[in-house]
Write a structure and sequence with these properties.
By secondary structure, the chain is an alpha+beta fold. It has 14 helices and 16 strands. A six-stranded mixed β-sheet has the order 13-14-12-11-9-16. A five-stranded antiparallel β-sheet has the order 5-4-8-7-6, sandwiched between helices. Strands 1-2-3 form a three-stranded antiparallel β-sheet. The chain is elongated and about 150 Å long.
Length: about 450
């Protein structure tokens, strides 16, 4: 604040920082020490006259600090204090303004690069729903240039038909309600159906008036496809479980039920025939014992299908048992190559998942492969366990497998459950390879140093 004699009556802390002068120094110098142009009487008279007008004056100049001269932007206006007219000067460092402007331009440039190169579709519309901006993803996605989009109405800026009308409704709703609106829109690109999640946000000017609408579209096709595959997988797994329950119920009813009924009938008849000789009674008892042995075997078979007891011995013994059952039931040569059975110790969940992958792979070979040779490889590395099931069967085209096929998707899902990966590769006429690889963790521990795998054959 400066009086008519150019005496400085007040400065704030920023003035001291900018010039390097203390408040005490300011009180001892006149303003023309800071702004040397005011030493000219004519310049001073003009400055005072213009500054005391109601609208004041704004100009650029150079101020002299304690150690340097720097460019400034000055706004001056009249200010009356205790009956005396003063000039109130608001001074801004032009270097600081320039730095702020450069930083702002840099931020805007960086933001523009982020928006322009974003994989999301980003558009801005004015209140007449004309497109003001569309990023690269929009232009490439719909094969349009920037001029093609900005000079056309909204419904013609994007693909004609449902997507244009749906987007128009979404943008219009945002304008009317002045609230965020979002929806999923379906668009076809190059004959392929894509699903976009579009979110429209109202934008306001400095006065709080609605100025435009920003629309952001994200391609969620893969997410929806994954959800659909999971639904199909869940459905198929549930169907498989129900089929297994049905089979178990049939086995229990038909086999176990018949065996138990026969035992009860035999025991009843034996109790009624008091006149039987010792030899006849012995023969009846032996027959009942045979029935009892058959009943025990039925119980064991049902229990094994639910969970083989051999799993309690570890992965390698369980795979040996699975190999032996595979050879016995199907007559197909099967070779297992694995490390020592004590080398790897797995927790219950990991052991069961790995076993089921091999079991399902062998089941698929019996049903579809028409193979004569099967190899099961178990390899232990310092950080992972690898299991492969390879056959020399007829193979198949992977892309022709129906979506949601329970067996293959079940194998892949078990791989994900182990925080690893299960992959199936196959070529018609060249067999199939199922590979399961998962990391060693707290659930998989190496009990001994990894040894060179031995060969366990069907002999």
């Amino acid at each position: 604040m400066i009086d008519s004699q150019l005496c400085i009556k007040y400065v704030n802390d920023k003035a001291c920082q900018l010039t390097g002068y203390s408040r005490e120094t300011f009180s001892q110098i006149s303003f023309d020490v800071i702004d040397k142009e005011l030493r000219d009487k004519d310049v001073f008279a003009l400055w005072w006259k213009l500054s005391t007008r109601p609208e004041g004056i704004q100009f650029t100049s150079h101020h002299t600090g304690r150690h340097h001269v720097f460019p400034v932007e000055v706004s001056c206006s009249g200010y009356e204090q205790e009956g005396e007219l003063h000039i109130l000067c608001i001074v801004r460092d032009m270097d600081e303004i320039r730095r702020q402007k450069e930083q702002q331009q840099l931020r805007e440039k960086q933001l523009h690069q982020v928006v322009e190169n974003s994989p999301d579709l980003i558009l801005r519309f004015d209140l007449q729903t004309r497109c003001l901006y569309a990023n690269l993803a929009v232009r490439n996605g719909f094969n349009l240039s920037e001029s093609d989009i900005t000079r056309l109405p909204l419904t013609e800026s994007v693909q004609r038909g449902g997507i244009g009308l749906s987007l128009f409704k979404l943008v219009s709703r945002t304008m009317v309600d002045e609230k965020v609106a979002e929806d999923e829109l379906v668009v076809r690109r190059k004959g392929e159906k894509r699903i976009l999640h579009v979110r429209c946000v109202p934008e306001y000017d400095l006065h709080g008036e609605l100025m435009s609408v920003l629309a952001v579209g994200r391609d969620i096709t893969a997410i929806r496809q994954t959800e659909e595959e999971l639904r199909l997988l869940t459905h198929n797994l549930e169907r498989a479980r129900e089929a297994e329950k049905k089979q178990l119920a049939r086995d229990i009813h038909d086999e176990l039920g018949q065996q138990l009924t026969a035992l009860r009938t035999g025991l009843s008849l034996l109790a009624m025939r008091k006149d039987l000789s010792v030899d006849a009674q012995e023969a009846k008892i032996q027959a009942l014992m045979a029935h009892l042995d058959s009943t025990i075997q039925v119980v064991r078979d049902v229990s094994t299908r639910l969970r083989p007891n051999v799993l309690n011995l570890g992965l390698v013994p369980a795979l040996e048992w699975l190999r032996d059952q595979f050879i016995k039931n199907n007559g197909i040569r099967c070779i297992l190559l694995a490390p020592d059975e004590h080398t790897v110790v797995l927790d219950e969940v990991t052991l069961t998942a790995a076993f089921r992958v091999v079991q399902e792979s062998l089941t698929n070979i019996v049903r579809h492969a028409q193979a004569s040779n099967v190899y099961i490889f178990v390899k232990l590395t310092p950080d992972a366990l690898l299991i492969e099931v390879v056959d020399n069967g007829k193979g198949f085209h992977l892309h022709r497998v129906k979506n949601g096929t329970c067996g293959l998707h079940g194998i892949e899902e078990r791989g994900r459950m182990l925080n690893g990966e299960a992959t199936i590769t196959s070529t018609p006429g060249k067999g199939t390879r199922v590979k399961l690889k998962f990391p060693l963790s707290g659930s998989v521990k190496s009990a001994h140093p990894v040894r060179k795998p031995g060969v366990l054959t069907d002999e």
